[in-house]
């Protein structure tokens, strides 16, 4: 492949195999996973429980570093010391003894020893965009679930990551807060267009936040299809035939029904 073509991709996964070793057995969690994420792309990864979605994210985050195959971030082997990798988890990952502002700066602090005035101004700007400007001095225990997730989202955008990995970030939230957070995520994402892998259990969420949708089955985890999503960022189409037929197709693929 030509250099110009390769440079279009921010994330490249080729023939990825991951095994978990326990004392009794070797468990194959991923089997020959292939996936590309374009610069500024969002791929939503959807699949049944236990198919290997989190394992895939952990490889991309550099948390799992024993694997077979190739995993490239911006054309270089994944390396958390070199790449800025933003990871948002379902349980927010906030430190309970630190206030909102300090929690929001944690990701950047890991990457940068000295936080300067410009960094703090940018942090304030992002926190204001996510609607937290009045809550900067609170502790996580004094926030709602949605507010905690806002802090977690602000934290990854403040560190200006090379790639963003979202592991079912909104699944613990009630339906209304969840929709608000999806809107907020896309709104903040639009200004940075950071290349994102968004893992979700929900077909509706995948169809709202994914420019592309990858369907995984397993274990062992495999990607059975990657499709373009014409409904990216659109909510009002819920009654269209095309929307429902795509949703049905996704559900069938997740269940392993191939027509
Ligand atoms: N540390 C481990 N040791 C052994 N097996 C593991 C380990 N972690 C995960 N697994 C197994 O690997 C498979 C993939 O797990 P993973 O957490 O990646 O799935 P998932 O698709 O993210 O699931 P869920 O949607 O329920 O979060 C599962 O079958 C799981 O039981």
TrEMBL record:
<keyword id="KW-0067">ATP-binding</keyword>
<feature type="domain" description="ABC transporter">
    <location>
        <begin position="13"/>
        <end position="243"/>
    </location>
</feature>
<keyword id="KW-0813">Transport</keyword>
<dbReference type="InterPro" id="IPR050166">
    <property type="entry name" value="ABC_transporter_ATP-bind"/>
</dbReference>
<protein>
    <submittedName>
        <fullName>Taurine import ATP-binding protein TauB</fullName>
        <ecNumber>3.6.3.36</ecNumber>
    </submittedName>
</protein>
<keyword id="KW-0547">Nucleotide-binding</keyword>
<keyword id="KW-0378">Hydrolase</keyword>
<dbReference type="InterPro" id="IPR003439">
    <property type="entry name" value="ABC_transporter-like_ATP-bd"/>
</dbReference>
<dbReference type="InterPro" id="IPR027417">
    <property type="entry name" value="P-loop_NTPase"/>
</dbReference>
<dbReference type="GO" id="GO:0005524">
    <property type="term" value="F:ATP binding"/>
</dbReference>
<keyword id="KW-0472">Membrane</keyword>
<keyword id="KW-1003">Cell membrane</keyword>
<dbReference type="InterPro" id="IPR017871">
    <property type="entry name" value="ABC_transporter-like_CS"/>
</dbReference>
<dbReference type="InterPro" id="IPR003593">
    <property type="entry name" value="AAA+_ATPase"/>
</dbReference>
<dbReference type="GO" id="GO:0016887">
    <property type="term" value="F:ATP hydrolysis activity"/>
</dbReference>
<dbReference type="GO" id="GO:0005886">
    <property type="term" value="C:plasma membrane"/>
</dbReference>
<dbReference type="Pfam" id="PF00005">
    <property type="entry name" value="ABC_tran"/>
</dbReference>
